[in-house]
Amino acid sequence: MATLDLVSAPLSPLRRAVLERLREAPASATEVAGALGESRQRVNYHVRALEREGLVELVEERARRGCVERVVRASCHAVIVEPTVVGAMPEEQDRFAADTLLAGGARLVRDVAAARSAAAERGQRLLTFAVEAEVGFNRPADLERFADALAARIAELAAELGPGERKYRVLIGGHPA
């Protein structure tokens, strides 16, 4: 399947609804269809497509009325698409450009996903951290002052703690809440 097909397929409204229902609890296509008010055949088609893409996994098979009923669950909690999948990111943007934040976020998703997979293969847990806060600004100049001060304090803290052997990339970004 082409990359864009993989991206758009799970994002159709019905497939999103099926994934949402299967995140709540494992269910058969018949049970999901009843909950969504759709036909079993239509939901089963979408469940199979989601299963082929690795977004849904088989939990059990059970005999029911001379047939085998398949019970599945969502195997993902979210579908995140790196912006470069649907188009190139502009080069050389300033730190206040939305594209700069998107490119950094895409790199974060790509790098953390690869590191998590590598750690899982080694039977280890990936040590990460996240800091999230909501701040308010009265004027655009206040945002710039905050970003400058934050960058300076992070540089000070990094210098204080020393170079260290284990390197971490720190991404700090902000967007309207």
Automatic annotation (TrEMBL):
Gene3D superfamilies (alphabetical): Winged helix-like DNA-binding domain superfamily/Winged helix DNA-binding domain (1.10.10.10)
Q: What is the protein's name according to its record?
A: Winged helix-turn-helix domain-containing protein
